[in-house]
Amino acid sequence: DDPQALAEFQARIDRGERIEPKEWMPEGYRKTLIRQIGQHAHSEIVGQLPEGNWITRAPTLERKQILLAKVQDEAGHGLYLYSACETLGVTRDELFEKLHSGAMKYSSIFNYPTLTWADMGAIGWLVDGAAIMNQVPLQRTSYGPYARAMVRICKEESFHQRQGYSIMMKMAQGTPAQKEMAQDALNRFWYPSLMMFGPSDAESVHSTQNMAWKIKINTNDELRQRFVNETVPQAEYLGLTVPDEHLRWNDDKQGYDFSEPDWDEFFEVLKGNGPCNEERLGARRKAWDDGQWFREGLSAYADKQATRRTA
Ligand code: 3HC
């Protein structure tokens, strides 16, 4: 890239201007956006699987309707994000191909199993809570289509988080066995939720450049700290215990000191060795293969319509 063009581009970012699809951008900026937005889109779609697992087993009709709506929202989020990604010159088919071949990632969190109904609560409360913490600042990200997609996504995520907390509240105030299920779900999802923010700042390869480009607004550790600060009082309100014996309020930093997640586990999950990686990717690949006849039908129909119009 031409140094003069790069400097002008950076100056636009520094002035807080939005970059729009047809405008010039450095190749690195375009590539990293495709990586991040694509990974985010994949996370929404793969994220449907652990919860989809519980739709048929929701304890009441109302909970079933709510969960169904939530899982459907995730599909919508995936679609806005794939569309935002396509404005960068990549096709949706290419993105799917990269997901299916393992060349592109999706969030580590969705490689953990959902064993009980309380996990629906923990996912809404913690996983969607972490997602919001990360995504609210992204409404101010420098790439226009991504920033705009985030506005609606964040509104919906906030509903998702509340529905999760509502499940946790019901369980925590229920029978001792239900409360125990809620505690168990918190125990299992706490550290994987902390991992969602990415590796520690020292290990984060993309943060410096992406923050300069305002693709990222905060560092991984900043957001993780904010998440812990907000979530611990919510756990206390539920009467549940965060599974961290080193958790302490630190007056000096006006935040909690807490234990780091097991980063070896995190990197193993990223490499494909988490508890459900194979199952999740297998389900996505199967959905793609099973949909082949439908995509072909749609294309054939579109071709027919186009021929009719020109005839
Ligand atoms: N899961 C999987 N991969 C992760 C990860 C995670 N939790 N955290 C980091 N990584 C990967 C990065 O992608 C990068 O790998 P790559 O170079 O092969 O792509 C590597 O680990 C190093 O991490 P960095 O900190 O350098 O990477 P980033 O600067 O991209 O920061 C991020 C990671 C904070 C996740 C950032 O990409 C981001 O903010 N992404 C947008 C938000 C997003 O993707 N959210 C998905 C979460 S869940 C969701 O949206 C569904 C909701 O409905 C619950």
From TrEMBL:
An annotated Gene Ontology molecular function: phenylacetyl-CoA 1,2-epoxidase activity
UniProt GO cellular component terms: cytosol
InterPro entries, alphabetized: Aromatic_CoA_ox/epox, Ferritin-like, Ferritin-like_SF, PaaA, PaaA_PaaC
Pfam family membership, one: PaaA_PaaC
Any Gene Ontology biological process: phenylacetate catabolic process
Protein name: Ring-1,2-phenylacetyl-CoA epoxidase subunit PaaA
Lineage, opening ranks: Bacteria, Pseudomonadati, Pseudomonadota, Alphaproteobacteria, Rhodobacterales
